[in-house]
Amino acid sequence: MNVLLDVKMFLSFLVTGNLVTVMLIGAYLWHHKDDDTLNTFFYAKCIQTIAWIIAIFRGGPFDFAAVSLANSVLFIGYSIESIALLKLLRYYTKSIRTLYLWITILNILGFHLILFFNNQFNYRVAFASIGIVALLVVPVLRMIRGKHLSLLMRLMGYLYLFIILILLIRALVALLINHSSEPGPITVLLAYGFVFITINLTMILGGTGFILLLKEMTDKELVRLANYDDLTKTLNRRAFFEQTKQCLDQYAKKKVKVSFLLFDVDRFKCINDTHGHDIGDRVLRDLSKRIYRQIGPDNLFSRFGGDEFAILMPGLDEEQSTASAERIRAEIAGAEIHLPDKPLNYTISIGLLTLLPDRYTDIENLYISCDNALYGAKKSGKNSVYRGQYQDEY
After folding, report:
1. What is the pLDDT of residues 1-28, one digit of tens each?
2. What pLDDT digit, counting tens, does each position of 263-289 carry?
3. Domain limit, last residue, from 161, 194, 227
4. Could you tell me which residue, 195 or 304, shows the higher pLDDT?
5. C-alpha distance from residue 168 to each of 2, 127, 134 (Å)
6. I want to staple 351 with a disulfide (CB 3.0 to 4.6 A). Which of 87, 128, 232, 262 is the partner?
7. Would you give the end-to-end CA distance of the chain in angstroms?
8. Which of 316, 318, 313 has its CA nearest to residue 299?
9. Is residue 394 part of a domain?
10. Average pLDDT over the chain, rounded to whole?
11. Which residue has the higher pLDDT, 329 or 61?
């Protein structure tokens, strides 16, 4: 069989597979047009498809131009695919963008140095393989070694790692076989056979795996939006009550006390009226950041609405919870919001109670009891902690 025909057969398979992948991603993208990460990945696959189409025209009078343009476009396509993966990992920064710009430029320049001064098929294959590895290695390492990643993300990382290994083997094989500017049948089988397997794996990963990962990330974001307050990054009231119910059941079985804090910002309406709602929002963000530094990882912290917040402290008795509440109050009392004219200080009043939960403990009664304690803190002069008692019925 003609060597060039063998090459074009491999390339035709790659073009067909890429076109199918592009169409599938395009169909999904039709309903997610504003997704920047998905758009980036779609552009990468389109560019890679164009590169393989150009490569089909190698041979004859256009051989040099086709090899030059196809590989240049392919480097750009893989660079954009890596950027899409890094965006998915939320690891794409200005420095990463600069890094990938330089890697892509160096790949294209290096390939053309070989093409102009030592145009041997083996060297071209080896350099192109290593160049693609250089583009993929950063996102692959992040997918494998990153913290708090899902099983699907790690699986994708190892599959991409397998692709990197195939590309490195392809480069090694290309360097070991006979040097020639025109490949023979064995060279085609080894070099293009490897790339055929590799690119087809990439298409499977790109078409299905990436969309699955994107959907997983979208689902996590929807859960976050459903459970957290966007301004303060605290639990919203519904999520707080759900998790508090589970926690009360758990500690009732353990027969261990829990403490509940309810607090708001003193004279918050005056802050809004005097300085505007933007400054009021800054106060709430500052408050939540400071309190997160004061509470443990097992504490539940929630914004109920406006300037009202709650904290559930599992396992803390009266003495421990009083110390924690006073520490929080003192931290906020020392807070300062920097304004153009003068600093803004603010304080909070805290209602506090401790109880040994049982199966009859009612969350609404818990909230009302603590709200009464908060009222006591306000009556005692604000910027204070007032301990109340849990009442079974209201």
Report:
1. 444 445 677 777 777 777 877 887 788 7
2. 999 999 999 999 999 999 999 999 999
3. 227
4. 304
5. 27, 10, 11
6. 262
7. 90
8. 313
9. no
10. 87
11. 329
In sequence order, which residues have a C-beta less than 8 Å from that of residue 329 and are 6 or more positions away? 347, 348, 350, 383, 384, 385
Neighbours of 389 (CB within 10 A): 11
**Same structural domain, 292 and 364:** yes
* Helix, coil or strand: residue 315: coil
Residue-number span of the structural domain to which 377 is assigned: 237-387
What are the backbone dihedrals phi and psi of residue 257, each rounded to the nearest 5 degrees, phi first? -70, 155
Answer left, alpha or beta for residue 236, where phi above 0 means left and psi between -120 and 50 means alpha.
beta
Distance CA 88, CA 98 (A): 18
Contact 186, 6 (CB under 8 A): no
Distance CA 226, CA 221 (A): 8
**Number of domains forming the structure of the chain:** 2
* Tokens linked to 162: 């397998």
CATH number, domain at 280?
3.30.70.270
CA distance 311 to 303: 9
> 167 by DSSP, 3-state: which?
helix
| Band (196; pLDDT cuts 50, 70, 90) | low
CA gap 386, 321 in Å, rounded? 12
Query: Is residue 34, in this structure, part of any structural domain at all?
Result: yes
User: Where does a domain end: 196, 227, 258?
Assistant: 227
Q: How far apart are CA 290 and CA 218, in angstroms?
A: 29
CA distance 91 to 100: 13
Residue with token string 């192109």: 128
Question: Tokens in use for 293?
Answer: 């530094």
Q: Are residues 113 and 57 in the same domain?
A: yes
CB-CB contact of 157 with 144 (8 Å) = yes
pLDDT at 181 over 60: no
Alpha helices in the chain (DSSP H): 3-29, 36-56, 63-88, 94-117, 121-145, 151-176, 185-204, 210-227, 237-254, 268-275, 277-292, 318-333, 363-379
Instruction: Compute the CA torsion angle 357, 362, 364, 366 (nearest 10 deg).
Output: -20
CA distance 191 to 240: 58
Which tokens go with 47? 């560019």
